[in-house]
Specification:
Elements lengths: L2 H14 L16 E4 L4 H15 L3 H5 L2 E9 L2 E3 L2 H5 L2 H10 L2 E12 L2 E14 L2 E15 L2 E13 L2
Parallel strand pairs: 1-4, 2-7
Antiparallel strand pairs: 2-3, 4-5, 5-6, 6-7
């Protein structure tokens, strides 16, 4: 696979993410906006199944959606394989998500051939270090394999909501 093409696809996904829009001016309610191409829907389903397994703390099931050589980037760090992620940081992610309420804001997804990307924006409501709400962005790149869609790259980023 052409690494330059994957990098270009990933960067395009990040730049294509729209900004969140309040549902009513002055209120904190949000309306989720989705722009999901029909051919990307199976990949979106895999992303949702992975996220649900992680939130449930089912790391074995979460691992079934990841390619063996997945690259996960978060907060300046990297996990370079499924085993590295599941053996370390995944447990912390699962523990955090168990106590968080994830409110989707925007999602955009596209697929072409055997590659797809899903870009999501969410608000994470939790109580950590006195900060209760985070804005989160997530990009996942998936590859269609003989076993179905597998996540080959994840990039997570978050910041406190101002």
């Amino acid at each position: 696979m052409n690494l330059r093409w994957i990098t270009s696809l990933s960067l395009s996904a990040l730049m294509a993410l729209p900004t969140w829009v309040p549902a009513h001016e002055g209120k904190h309610e949000l309306t989720a906006v989705n722009d999901i191409a029909q051919q990307a829907q199976p990949a979106v389903t895999v992303v949702d199944q992975f996220s649900a397994a992680l939130k449930d703390g089912d790391l074995k099931r979460a691992g079934t959606f990841l390619a063996e050589d997945v690259l996960i980037l978060e907060s300046g760090g990297a996990e370079r394989s499924r085993d590295e992620y599941l053996g370390g940081h995944a447990g912390h992610d699962a523990a955090f998500l168990k106590t968080a309420h994830v409110q989707p804001v925007q999602r955009k997804a596209r697929a072409e051939g055997d590659l797809a990307w899903v870009g999501s924006e969410s608000e994470l409501h939790t109580e950590k270090d006195g900060k209760t709400t985070f804005l989160s962005t997530e990009t996942m790149v998936l590859k269609r394999t003989s076993q179905g869609w597998r996540i080959v790259h994840i990039h997570w980023s978050s910041r406190p909501k101002r």
